Amino acid sequence: MKLKSKSNGVAKNQVVEKSEKKPLPSNISASLITRDMREITQKTGNVYESVYIIAQRAKQIAAKTKEELTAKLNDFSSPIDNLEEVFENREQIEISKFYEKMPKPTTIATEEFLEDKLAWKYPEEIEN
Protein backbone atom coordinates (compact mmCIF):
# COMPACT_ATOMS: atom_id res chain seq x y z
CA MET A 1 0.00 0.00 0.00
CA LYS A 2 1.46 3.33 -0.99
CA LEU A 3 -0.04 6.63 -0.05
CA LYS A 4 1.32 9.97 -1.06
CA SER A 5 2.19 12.68 1.37
CA LYS A 6 2.07 16.24 0.12
CA SER A 7 4.82 17.37 2.50
CA ASN A 8 7.82 15.48 1.16
CA GLY A 9 6.59 13.13 -1.58
CA VAL A 10 7.28 10.02 0.50
CA ALA A 11 4.63 7.33 0.37
CA LYS A 12 2.62 7.45 3.58
CA ASN A 13 -0.76 6.44 4.87
CA GLN A 14 -3.17 9.22 5.42
CA VAL A 15 -4.81 7.95 8.54
CA VAL A 16 -7.44 9.98 10.30
CA GLU A 17 -9.64 9.28 13.24
CA LYS A 18 -13.29 9.10 12.21
CA SER A 19 -14.54 11.25 15.09
CA GLU A 20 -13.14 14.75 15.51
CA LYS A 21 -11.57 16.18 18.71
CA LYS A 22 -12.13 13.15 20.88
CA PRO A 23 -10.20 12.94 24.17
CA LEU A 24 -7.84 10.03 24.61
CA PRO A 25 -9.74 7.02 25.91
CA SER A 26 -9.34 6.27 29.58
CA ASN A 27 -10.85 2.80 29.31
CA ILE A 28 -7.82 1.38 27.50
CA SER A 29 -5.49 -0.68 29.62
CA ALA A 30 -1.92 0.57 29.87
CA SER A 31 -0.62 -3.00 30.05
CA LEU A 32 0.31 -5.15 27.09
CA ILE A 33 -2.31 -7.40 25.55
CA THR A 34 -1.75 -10.39 23.28
CA ARG A 35 -3.58 -9.75 20.00
CA ASP A 36 -5.03 -12.17 17.49
CA MET A 37 -3.28 -11.32 14.23
CA ARG A 38 -6.21 -12.71 12.21
CA GLU A 39 -8.44 -10.03 13.70
CA ILE A 40 -5.92 -7.31 12.80
CA THR A 41 -5.41 -8.72 9.29
CA GLN A 42 -9.13 -9.08 8.64
CA LYS A 43 -9.75 -5.35 8.08
CA THR A 44 -7.21 -4.90 5.27
CA GLY A 45 -6.38 -8.44 4.15
CA ASN A 46 -2.68 -7.85 4.79
CA VAL A 47 -1.00 -7.92 8.20
CA TYR A 48 1.76 -5.51 7.13
CA GLU A 49 -0.75 -3.01 5.80
CA SER A 50 -2.73 -3.18 9.05
CA VAL A 51 0.38 -2.72 11.17
CA TYR A 52 1.46 0.22 8.99
CA ILE A 53 -1.91 1.93 9.46
CA ILE A 54 -1.73 1.38 13.22
CA ALA A 55 1.84 2.72 13.29
CA GLN A 56 0.88 5.88 11.39
CA ARG A 57 -1.99 6.56 13.79
CA ALA A 58 0.30 5.89 16.77
CA LYS A 59 2.70 8.53 15.44
CA GLN A 60 -0.16 11.03 15.22
CA ILE A 61 -1.27 10.27 18.79
CA ALA A 62 2.29 10.51 20.10
CA ALA A 63 2.82 13.87 18.40
CA LYS A 64 -0.45 15.26 19.78
CA THR A 65 0.33 13.99 23.28
CA LYS A 66 3.83 15.46 23.15
CA GLU A 67 2.44 18.85 22.11
CA GLU A 68 -0.05 18.80 24.99
CA LEU A 69 2.60 17.82 27.53
CA THR A 70 5.07 20.41 26.26
CA ALA A 71 2.42 23.13 26.42
CA LYS A 72 1.53 22.22 30.00
CA LEU A 73 5.16 22.01 31.12
CA ASN A 74 6.05 25.31 29.43
CA ASP A 75 3.76 27.03 31.92
CA PHE A 76 6.28 26.15 34.63
CA SER A 77 9.41 27.32 32.84
CA SER A 78 10.83 30.80 33.00
CA PRO A 79 13.36 32.35 30.63
CA ILE A 80 15.83 33.14 33.44
CA ASP A 81 16.15 29.74 35.09
CA ASN A 82 19.44 29.05 36.77
CA LEU A 83 20.55 26.36 39.17
CA GLU A 84 19.49 28.29 42.28
CA GLU A 85 15.99 28.93 40.95
CA VAL A 86 15.24 25.37 39.85
CA PHE A 87 13.12 23.59 42.42
CA GLU A 88 10.66 20.73 42.50
CA ASN A 89 7.22 21.80 41.48
CA ARG A 90 4.55 19.40 42.72
CA GLU A 91 2.11 20.25 39.90
CA GLN A 92 4.77 19.65 37.27
CA ILE A 93 5.59 16.27 38.79
CA GLU A 94 1.90 15.30 38.88
CA ILE A 95 1.45 16.26 35.22
CA SER A 96 4.48 14.20 34.23
CA LYS A 97 3.26 11.19 36.23
CA PHE A 98 -0.18 11.45 34.61
CA TYR A 99 1.34 11.29 31.11
CA GLU A 100 3.62 8.41 32.11
CA LYS A 101 0.62 6.35 33.27
CA MET A 102 -1.36 6.90 30.08
CA PRO A 103 -1.70 4.02 27.62
CA LYS A 104 1.00 3.96 24.96
CA PRO A 105 0.14 5.47 21.55
CA THR A 106 0.45 2.07 19.86
CA THR A 107 -2.08 0.56 22.26
CA ILE A 108 -4.54 3.40 21.64
CA ALA A 109 -4.05 3.18 17.86
CA THR A 110 -4.57 -0.59 17.90
CA GLU A 111 -7.80 -0.21 19.87
CA GLU A 112 -9.04 2.47 17.46
CA PHE A 113 -8.18 0.24 14.49
CA LEU A 114 -9.94 -2.80 15.92
CA GLU A 115 -13.02 -0.74 16.88
CA ASP A 116 -13.27 0.72 13.32
CA LYS A 117 -12.57 4.25 14.52
CA LEU A 118 -9.92 4.89 11.82
CA ALA A 119 -10.26 5.76 8.17
CA TRP A 120 -7.46 5.55 5.62
CA LYS A 121 -7.12 6.21 1.93
CA TYR A 122 -5.01 4.74 -0.85
CA PRO A 123 -3.13 6.91 -3.40
CA GLU A 124 -5.67 6.20 -6.14
CA GLU A 125 -8.43 7.52 -3.87
CA ILE A 126 -6.43 10.64 -2.96
CA GLU A 127 -5.71 11.64 -6.57
CA ASN A 128 -9.35 11.36 -7.70
From TrEMBL:
GO MF term list: DNA binding; DNA-directed RNA polymerase activity
Renumbered residue ranges of the record's region Disordered: 1-24
Composition skew (Polar residues), residue ranges: 1-11
SUPFAM superfamilies: RPB6/omega subunit-like
Protein keywords: DNA-directed RNA polymerase, Transcription
The reaction(s) this protein catalyses: RNA(n) + a ribonucleoside 5'-triphosphate = RNA(n+1) + diphosphate
Enzyme Commission no: 2.7.7.6
Any one GO BP annotation for this protein: DNA-templated transcription
Keyword Transcription: yes
InterPro entries hit by this protein: Pol_omega/Rpo6/RPB6 (IPR006110), RPB6/omega-like_sf (IPR036161)
GO cellular component, one term: DNA-directed RNA polymerase complex
Family indicated by similarity: Belongs to the RNA polymerase subunit omega family.
Protein name, entry field: DNA-directed RNA polymerase subunit omega
The organism of origin for this protein: Raineya orbicola
